[in-house]
Queue: 4 jobs
Job 1
Amino acid sequence: MKYREGVVEIPRDVQVEVMPPAFVRVKGRLGVIERDFGHAGAELSIDGDTLKVKVYGRGRRALARLGTIKASIGNMITGVTQGYTYKLKIVQSHFPISVKVQGNSLVVENFTGERHPRVIRLPEGVKVQVKGDDVIVSGIDKFLVGLAAGRIEQGTRITRKDLRKFLDGIYVYEKKVGMS
């Protein structure tokens, strides 16, 4: 059967474990990330300081799966060495919004004058801080940090109003590598 191969370089300060056929555990100074790529029809193996990725199939789809797996593992390595931070801005023009973190959720009160607060559930492994008009989401897993930022944006989405006039909400304005 035909296959595509790719290689991901492993830095010295990162430990990568592979359990057949495609389960990966990446350990670094900031923590541990685990992910299973078995659903993608891939085989992973470690050869010295490189991780070999083998995806079965040919053509554009196999090449796309190979690139996705290599990028995901690269993001895992970057996450355990440096981390990720997304910054969101609280925009309010009609009503003063109150935002606070309670446990594993973000509570938005008085959003467009609503009586009941909007509660946004956040995934485990993500740290959220509210500083003035900024909401800072940070963590080691890029997928979870992006998921939390997306849930916050979607949780403050305005419906049934003129979006040109009602710009209230919480929006992502900066994505960076590194924890702050």
Job 2
Amino acid sequence: MRLGTKGRYAVIAMTDLASQMQGKPITLVEISQRQDLPLSYLEQLFIKLRQKGLVESVRGNNGGYFLATSPEGIYIRDIILAAEEKIKSTQCEASSMQSCHGQSERCLTHNLWAGLEKHILDYLGSITLADVCARRVLPSGCKVKEAVA
């Protein structure tokens, strides 16, 4: 299973946007240059991100994008799903009782792959944009616990 370009680029761009927040909108040209992402691709992604309420836009000379809410309130799962990236581990629909190959019943491993899909979505739903920006996500997939004052 592999996360596609739409989802990866959307997370990279949103992380850049969150880390550059200085009270002024950020242009897609700036994000494109800093992250070496195609501008035309970002334009398409940000239409979707805006439609899903994750970013807001400002038009004009000083225009650009900013987060619609704080980075603590934006989950990586929501960014990926807003970009219309599918995290799919089975070829058939989850609600279908037929197998991926059109047989009368699901394959023996269907529930295994469907469970993996759920775990991936749950994991991505537990990580916020703030976690990524603050580098609180370890390569092991665990989050660094914040120190209690």
Job 3
Amino acid sequence: MTLVFIRILLRYLAAVLVTRGLIAPDLGEMISRDPDIAMALQVASGALIAATAEGWYYLAHRCGWAK
């Protein structure tokens, strides 16, 4: 299910970049339809969420919030 949301996010991101003239329309279509890019974004978002959780855990122990 997460992959579906990421593909939708990629479509909107590509549309914004194309309308602002930052990328070519062909490249925008490739970004929004390529499953490898969607999978890479899903892995990166999972790593970011895990890093945020671990950072919060470290901060909680350092500040004495985890008792």
Job 4
Amino acid sequence: MNKLIPFLFIFLWFSSCESDDQNNLLPYVIVNETINLTNPEFINLQVPGGWAYANGGIKGIIIYNVNGSSYKAYERSCPQILPSPCSQMTVEQSFKLKCPCDQSEFNILNGTPLTPNINYIVREYKVTVINSNTLKISNF
């Protein structure tokens, strides 16, 4: 019986912690997109620092080429606002994401807020490089 007490304590500790999902305002949607980098709309993704918009997610996806071989993919819906007509983020100056509802800004490299008093990070999706011309974006 005494051996169960530490396990019970650990279980209660972890179950009482808040979720790591700081985007709890946004609804969950399944994301499963394949991106062909040779398509004209994704031509900018062929160079480091390039970005493009893609379909999928709640309000679309922003894809960013980090260094020529790794990519980031983010939800376009502003993380701190319930989805609305003005909550679709845009890329500004090729290095930040901007929410037109409240003019808040986020870092394109990691999704963290650049605007004071914003406590949500941008929802990030998993990017898998299938081959030199194909990316798979998903949230599972």
